[in-house]
Every structure is written in C-alpha cells, then in structure tokens.
Amino acid sequence: MVFEKVAKILAEHKEIEVSEIHPESTLEELGLDSLDTVDLIMQFEDEFNVSLEMDEKIKTVGDIVKLIEDNME
C-alpha cells in the first residue's frame, strides 16, 4: 500500500505512468534532482503523516518506501 501511494505521487510529480515506477527504480532514473526530492519528501510527510529525514543512502523508490514504513506509527 505504501509503495502504491509513493508511486502515484512520483508519477504525478514527474508526469509519467505509475507502471514505469518500480521499487528498484532509482531517483536518478526517474529524473529527480535534489529540489524534486525535497518537495516530494514534504508531500510524503503530509500524505503519510510522518516525519522523514532525507539521507544520502536513499537511492531507490524502495528506499523511500522503507523510510516511510519505518516511521509510521
């Protein structure tokens, strides 16, 4: 469920099909720069009601999903 919401938000942000986004998709492959990432982290925080710390280790969509799941109550 978390992945589906993350993929939908990413797809809307980058104007691509949700089907193009996979857990192993890198942020770089999706064309996300640091400004996009900051904007998206804020969206994810609002959508999932969590507080997220951006980390250089976050490279893939799966990493984002794990970060959100780890911070959910």
Structure write-up:
This protein is mainly α. The chain has one domain (1-72): ACP-like (Non-ribosomal Peptide Synthetase Peptidyl Carrier Protein, Chain A), CATH 1.10.1200.10. Helix content is 53%, strand content 0%. The protein has helices at residues 2-14, 34-48, 61-71. The longest helix is centred in the middle third of the chain and has 15 residues, at 34-48. It starts with a helix and ends with a helix.
What key attributes describe this structure?
globular, 73 residues, mainly alpha, single chain
CATH homologous superfamily (4th level) name = ACP-like
In the CATH hierarchy, the third-tier topology is known as Non-ribosomal Peptide Synthetase Peptidyl Carrier Protein, Chain A
- Class of secondary structure makeup: mainly alpha
**Under the CATH scheme, which class?**
Mainly Alpha
Secondary structure elements and pairings:
Layout: H1 2-14, H2 34-48, H3 61-71
Helix pairs in contact: 1-2, 1-3
Short description:
The chain is mainly alpha-helical.
